[in-house]
Amino acid sequence: MHTLGENHDQLVDYLTDRGVPDWLANIPTMPPAYVYSVGEELLNSGKDLLDWLFPDPPPPCVGRKC
């Protein structure tokens, strides 16, 4: 819900700054903001899963025996 709130607020602010009345910018933009936010969270979750499965390798030993 946090991601949805942030994305929706940004969209409503963008529209109201350009003269769209708040009542018109607020409710109709909820479904598209929801779909976008779900996609964003899916991408974030996938990245987190891949980072967990394949962590970065340790840095190579430089100037000393390992």
List keywords for this structure.
66 residues, 3 helices, single chain, elongated, mainly alpha
Task: Describe the protein's architecture and organization.
This protein has 66 residues and is mainly alpha-helical. It is 68% helix and 0% strand. The longest helix has 24 residues. The protein starts with a helix and ends in a 13-residue tail after the last helix.
SSE sequence, one letter per element: HHH
- Biggest pleated sheet: none
State the helicity in percent bands.
55-70%
Termini separation comes to: 47 Å
Rg over alpha carbons:
21 Å
Strand content: under 5%
Shape: elongated
How many β strands by DSSP? 0
Count of all domains: 1
Task: Give the topology.
Elements: H1 2-17, H2 22-26, H3 30-53
Tell me briefly what this model is.
This protein is mainly α and 66 residues long. The chain has one domain (2-53). It has helices at residues 2-17, 22-26, 30-53.
